[in-house]
TrEMBL record:
Active site annotation, chain numbering: 14 (o-(5'-phospho-dna)-serine intermediate)
Stretches assigned to the Resolvase/invertase-type recombinase catalytic domain: 6-140
Keywords: DNA integration, DNA recombination, DNA-binding
SUPFAM superfamilies: Resolvase-like
Organism field: Pseudomonas azadiae
Protein name, UniProt field: Recombinase family protein
One Pfam family in the UniProt entry: Resolvase
Superkingdom of the source species: Bacteria
Amino acid sequence: MLAISHSIGYARVSTVTQSLEQQRSQLSELGCIRIFEEKVSGTKRDRPELICMLDHLRAGDVLLVTRLDRLARSTADLLHIAELLRERGAGLRSVAEPWADTTTPAGRMILTVFAGIADFERSLIVERTSNGRQAAKSRGVRFGPKPVLTSSQIAHARELSKSLLSIGPFSVSRSMSALSAMIVLALVSHSAIYTGTACKQGTTPLSRACCAT
């Protein structure tokens, strides 16, 4: 049996209907002088009991969990918590994963390797995203917000707007369901066609007209 002096336990389940009894019993048997418990998703970093436990830890303490996924649900979160423990001078041990023991040189080395792998994965993601965007641009793919109006709609509206004085903006707008009378008026007086981003800003008569539709 793994028995630890001055150890602090942390037990977690994801939902209120699940029981903490098995974890609580195991941590108590292993000599935890205090066990922090909560029923919350492991993907959340702002877990109240986790924060309280981290504040409670002192140099020389060891955090004990039954499994690493009770503490963190991703490598990034595990490394983040392990670093917080290191800053406090505390260690980490997992019952189900004996290699995850930062109180030993081997355990610290393994976590260092994990950190390197996680950093490598992040670099690959950034590189793949960048390469993907460059490849898409070379194929003519445009990034950013889509234009409020298509080029054909713009051309059609301008053509119709030439007869604005005789038939009126409302008649023009009725012939194009995508356009309001305000946009027709704006097309007559403004040559620039704004995109969705400009519409959100609402800084011009045309952009305000686009936003109104």
